[in-house]
């Protein structure tokens, strides 16, 4: 029998994700949920709807979360961590508010949240916290007393997140024809966001242009590029690039786009490119459409050999990393000394988002932060 691990003061882990449609009839209501009050052009919505219809109206994200849930439960059981794991989404069933109601029903009083977004930014962190606050408010409206909620720190630089991606890049390189392999460029890719959102991602004072969002991705890219060089003896040129831009054309978003980058690399004589989607936790629609469909098609037009490397998904090393993060946070909350695990130059992220971290354009209550009315 393994030793019993101590998750107190927490009595549940909540996997909090984006959600996605599971059939053609879900697509439009899902997009309405995502974009409620966000001013995304109708043209863009029609286009994104087509991305989903191309795959039968099904996003793989929910099945990927089910697999992650299984991996977490299996890892916790194997290691004697007695902590139930719940799952709720921001934009599709199972909806966060319903899951929070389940937590109350089961008598859970202090919940730790694992968001399926590894980096800072309004879209990747505060927006999740706002939706948590909305769910808390909804339960209070019903006369229920919701549990206290904390959110795990950003895990972009945790070895259990980075190492499976490093291995994925090595596999993609190995999959290229040998004569192209050593000259291959690495394109680390993530979701584009408005430059104004990047610059204030947080906390903004601590970072330069591009804020924590860009700095964190650059740090991970550097760690992976270094590890690849160590393992192969080859120094592959690399760059951080972006994908899945939306919003109005006159508003600046992070660039270059992956497709423009492929064109530019091709013109510069790169023999091949490995696209490494470090910004994403699983192979959801952004990976399946924007990389595997659109960017692959662009590369085909150019005659540029490309490979797309793996996301962590339900890798057991990621599940183990979550266990490590849970135990670290629980110990910290109990006032024990902890040595947070992190690769790269930035070091471990804060446990509690400071006031004004990744600010929204229009301030709204957000849970699990120093500026939270529920902290
Ligand atoms: C940083 C970031 C992540 C990574 C962190 C994280 O994972 O959270 C992410 C993930 C995801 N984004 C997703 C889907 C969408 N994102 C949209 C819109 C937007 N995303 C943004 C940013 C991000 N998004 C932004 C700044 C917008 C524009 C306006 C707004 O702020 O809303 C739209 C509306 C249409 C469009 O404009 O494309 C959709 C449908 C799905 C589900 C995929 C599936 O179904 O498999 C996932 C995992
Ligand atoms: Fe998105």
TrEMBL record:
Its EC number is 4.99.1.9. Fe-coproporphyrin III binds at residues 59, 128. It is found in: Cytoplasm. Its main location: cytoplasm. Coiled coil: none annotated. The keyword Repressor does not apply. Fe(2+) binds at residues 191, 286. The keyword Amino-acid biosynthesis does not apply. It catalyses: Fe-coproporphyrin III + 2 H(+) = coproporphyrin III + Fe(2+). Pathway: Porphyrin-containing compound metabolism; protoheme biosynthesis. It comes from the Bacteria. Keywords: Cytoplasm, Heme biosynthesis, Iron, Lyase, Metal-binding, Porphyrin biosynthesis. It is an enzyme of class 4 (lyase). Belongs to the ferrochelatase family. Involved in coproporphyrin-dependent heme b biosynthesis. Catalyzes the insertion of ferrous iron into coproporphyrin III to form Fe-coproporphyrin III. This is Coproporphyrin III ferrochelatase. It comes from Streptomyces ziwulingensis. The lineage of its organism: Bacteria, Bacillati, Actinomycetota, Actinomycetes, Kitasatosporales.
């Amino acid at each position: 029998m393994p030793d019993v691990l101590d998750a107190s003061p927490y009595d549940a882990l909540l996997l909090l994700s984006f959600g996605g449609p599971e059939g053609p009839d879900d697509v439009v209501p899902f997009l309405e949920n995502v974009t409620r009050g966000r001013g995304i052009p109708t043209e863009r919505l029609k286009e994104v709807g087509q991305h989903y219809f191309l795959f039968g109206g099904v996003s793989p994200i929910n099945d990927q979360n089910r697999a992650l849930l299984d991996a977490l439960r299996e890892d916790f059981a194997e290691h004697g961590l007695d902590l139930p794991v719940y799952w709720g989404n921001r934009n599709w069933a199972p909806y966060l508010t319903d899951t929070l109601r389940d937590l109350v029903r089961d008598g859970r009083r202090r919940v730790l949240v694992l968001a399926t977004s590894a980096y800072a930014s309004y879209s990747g962190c505060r927006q999740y916290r706002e939706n948590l606050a909305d769910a808390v408010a909804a339960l209070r409206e019903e006369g229920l007393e919701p549990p206290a909620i904390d959110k795990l720190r950003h895990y972009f630089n945790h070895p259990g997140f980075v190492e499976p991606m490093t291995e994925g890049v090595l596999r993609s390189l190995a999959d290229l024809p040998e004569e192209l392999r050593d000259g291959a460029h690495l394109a680390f890719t993530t979701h584009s966001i408005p430059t104004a959102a990047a610059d204030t991602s947080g906390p903004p004072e601590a970072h330069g242009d591009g804020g924590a969002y860009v700095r964190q991705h650059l740090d991970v890219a550097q760690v992976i590029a270094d590890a690849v060089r160590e393992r192969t003896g080859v120094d592959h040129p690399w760059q951080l690039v972006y994908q899945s831009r939306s919003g109005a054309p006159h508003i600046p978003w992070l660039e270059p786009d992956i497709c423009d980058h492929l064109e530019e690399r091709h013109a510069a004589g790169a023999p091949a490119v490995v696209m490494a989607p470090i910004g994403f936790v699983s192979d959801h629609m952004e990976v399946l459409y924007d990389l595997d469909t659109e960017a692959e098609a662009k590369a085909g037009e150019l005659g540029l050999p490309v490979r797309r490397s793996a996301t962590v998904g339900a890798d057991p090393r990621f599940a183990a990393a979550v266990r490590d993060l849970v135990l670290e946070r629980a110990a910290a909350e109990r006032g024990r000394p902890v040595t947070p695990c992190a690769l790269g130059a930035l070091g471990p992220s804060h446990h509690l988002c400071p006031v004004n971290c990744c600010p929204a354009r229009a301030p709204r209550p957000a849970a699990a932060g120093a500026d939270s009315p529920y902290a």
